[in-house]
Specification:
With 504 residues, the protein is of the alpha/beta class. The chain has 14 helices and 16 strands. It is globular, with a radius of gyration of 24 Å. Bound molecules: calcium ion (CA) (3 copies).
């Protein structure tokens, strides 16, 4: 048997009968595309606006450089994004991607001797393994292996079966369309029929539905891989190859997630392309480690260590799981190391509508060895634009002790692969906080993570007298606030304890 799966062992048998597994709640692991698509009154950059001016609770990040001119010639703040990869050739990210100065790209040689060949723009820790088993499958496999014929296992098996049924249905539809497309294309190309109009109409219909043939093909492969790896109780990944991986951080079936996150932080401002990012003097270090399915702790630990060893100041983690697996201690060790090296970690609270004071998720904000919270760690929940009951996103996790602060995470427009795309999720809230921390560091490069966290939490926007589900907004997080960049800068410049850190 592996290490403890701590919180399951706290459940007594009598409770277990009526107990719903948190794994059955994993609906929104990935961000949700636009929730309020039709609401055109909300500007696309609402998350950057100032509450007083626009009556939308953004982070007041639009013109901070006018009040506080940015210091010149400071080296850029490096933000590592441990995610699904980043489209590094995106025109709105040009000049914003970190480069490993000691590595010569594309020569097949590990020039800087760090163990990674040609890691010029970060590293893809997944190698070719873009798909992996989901949490519910791993949890069910664990229960089967340990002969727990529990209500939880029955529930998980039923969820997995439903997922497979839906995927099989989708796969069959896609396969049919794929065949129609190919048959029609062949007929037209070979001019093999007298009635070509039927085939032309068929293609038109399919292009309306899928956009391009490539899209249809991608969907087909994606569905097939989900059946094969993500929701397959019989899929067992043999021991992880620690040395797999490659330099290709800009490929993969879910590249849009990491690209969206990178854009929120670093997209070039006022260039008429893409969006306006939040930080200016910043470089993104893309570290691809998140598959479709649940991440592996070995890879997360390696990615955190890579960020530490290559001078990232901030690490953004927009992912979570509820499964404590055997090698979680590697992740914890890496976080401890980041703490010692004064690197800030910003983590998305997750999209399962859970109170995290009652449920442990991983990576965990506490050191399991000492049971103390990491002081270089900020956990971020998601808010919407309006000061009403919808302020906390319905999907967002929360917790008076376990979530530090909120940041916009509903209908956030950022960079997609071809066009801008609107996503909702705490995955979007975390990079907003990472970007604010990067801005502060640019003005005061020697601030420690603990101080950065204190400034950001102290200066946040306290929304008073707002009740959401019979509790005040302020009760849903440690600070009770929403991040506010301009206020954070005001705090940095007005509080005498930070005077000596300012780079005048
Ligand atoms: Ca290297
Ligand atoms: Ca090289
Ligand atoms: Ca732009």
């Amino acid at each position: 048997m592996g290490r403890l799966i701590t919180f399951f062992l706290l459940i007594s048998t009598s409770q277990a009968l009526s107990w719903v597994s948190p794994f059955s709640l994993l609906r929104y692991r990935y961000p949700i595309e636009s929730l309020i698509k039709t609401n055109s009154l909300i500007p696309k950059d609402w998350h950057l606006t100032d509450y007083r001016d626009d009556l939308l609770i953004g982070i007041n990040a639009k013109d901070y450089e006018l009040t506080y001119p940015e210091p010149k010639n400071n080296p850029p703040i490096v933000v590592a994004i441990i995610d699904t990869g980043v489209q590094i050739e995106h025109p709105d990210l040009q000049g914003k991607i970190w480069t490993n100065q000691n590595e010569i790209p594309n020569n097949g040689y590990d020039d800087d001797g760090n163990g990674y060949i040609d890691d010029y723009h970060g590293w893809n820790f997944l190698g070719e393994q873009d798909y992996d088993s989901s949490e519910i499958v791993r949890r069910a496999q664990y229960l089967i292996k340990n002969n727990h014929n529990s209500p939880e296992l029955i529930e998980l098996k039923s969820i997995i079966q439903t997922k497979r049924d839906n995927l099989l249905y989708k796969f069959e539809k896609l396969r049919q369309d794929h065949t129609i497309y190919q048959t029609s294309l062949n007929a037209i190309q070979q001019n093999s029929s007298t009635n070509l109009d039927i085939f032309k109409t068929a293609i038109e219909k399919l292009e309306k539905k899928y956009g391009t043939y490539q899209n249809l093909n991608k969907l087909l492969k994606n569905t097939q891989n989900k059946l094969k790896y993500v929701y397959n109780l019989n899929y067992k990944q043999s021991s992880i190859d620690f040395f797999s991986g490659n330099e290709k951080v800009n490929l993969g079936p879910n590249l849009v997630h990491g690209t969206h996150v990178a854009g929120i932080i670093a997209a070039i401002k006022e260039n008429q392309i893409g969006i306006n990012g939040i930080a200016t003097n910043v470089k993104i270090m893309p570290l691809k480690a998140i598959p479709i399915g649940a991440e592996r702790d070995e890879k997360i630990a390696q990615a955190i260590n890579y960020a530490i060893d290559h001078n990232a100041k901030i690490i953004n983690l927009s992912f979570n799981k509820y499964l404590q697996e055997n090698n979680y201690f590697l992740v914890q060790r890496a976080i401890e190391r980041a703490q010692k090296k004064d690197i800030l970690i910003v983590h998305s609270a997750g999209n399962e509508s859970l109170n995290l004071d009652n449920t442990i998720q991983f990576p965990y904000f506490k050191n399991l060895r000492t049971n103390k919270s990491f002081d270089n760690w900020i956990s971020v929940g998601a808010t919407g634009p309006h000061k009403d009951e919808s302020l906390i996103a319905h999907f967002s996790n929360y917790g008076k002790y376990s979530v530090d602060i909120f940041a916009p995470g509903v209908d956030i427009t950022s960079l997609g692969i071809d066009n801008n795309i609107i996503f909702s999720g705490t995955s979007m809230s975390a990079p907003i906080v990472s970007a604010c921390a990067a801005v502060l560091l640019n003005y005061a490069p020697d601030l420690k993570p603990k101080q950065l966290k204190k400034i950001l939490l102290d200066s946040g926007n306290k929304i008073l007298n707002l009740r959401i589900n019979n509790k005040y907004f302020t009760e849903y997080s440690r600070s009770g606030k929403i991040i506010n960049l301009k206020a954070a800068l005001n705090e940095l410049y007005s509080n005498p304890i930070y005077e000596k850190y300012l780079d005048h």
